[in-house]
Amino acid sequence: MQKEIINRVAKSKLITIDLEDFYPEGKRVVLDISEWLVDGIFLKEVDFRNSLAAHDWSAYQGNYVAVYCKTDAIIPSWAFMLVSLELAPFAKKVAIGDLTSLETLLFSEIILQLDIEEYRNKPVIVKGCTSKPIPESAYSLICTKLHTVASKIMYGEACSFVPLSQKK
Question: Do 73 and 117 fall into the same domain?
Fold first, then answer.
């Protein structure tokens, strides 16, 4: 007679947080402003403003947009502000920088708004393996936030985890 296999992980109070579950769906687009610079190097305000006025901003409708410059040009802050203002009616979110900067912004906003009461005095595993681009900063931010309520914080999978924090 065989003994029944019991899934102790399923019966435990352990809660797994998969940051991939919070991943905001939508197309990510990178907008390089170097094409609006003279020789891709310096910004001439009149030409830059004319380029912005002529650009079809509706192409970014419903997208998450990362605005950056691929050249080593020194771009004044107001230029990025102008681009952001043009994108505002169309894009879901605008970040200045590369795609990692965009993902960092998105996850920071999501985690900061996360209600963590359900994790109070419970052991939590922050799942590590994902198929979507989760920024490293998101893992640090979720752990820092959970630290105030969770009884234990681990990283990985229930069968193989790294302990990170435990309340005494």
Answer: no
Question: Which tokens belong to 119?
Answer: 């994790």
Q: Which residues contact 2 (CB under 8 A, 6 or more apart)?
A: none
Please report, in tens digits, the pLDDT of each residue of the chain (168 residues total).
Answer: 677 655 454 556 899 999 999 999 999 999 999 999 998 889 999 999 999 999 999 999 999 999 999 999 989 999 999 999 999 999 999 999 999 999 999 999 999 999 999 999 999 999 988 888 899 999 999 999 999 999 999 998 877 788 788 887
Our count of domains for the chain comes to 2
Is residue 96 included in any domain, yes or no?
A: no
Per-residue DSSP letter, 42 = B
Q: Which domain, by its residues, includes 39? A: 28-91
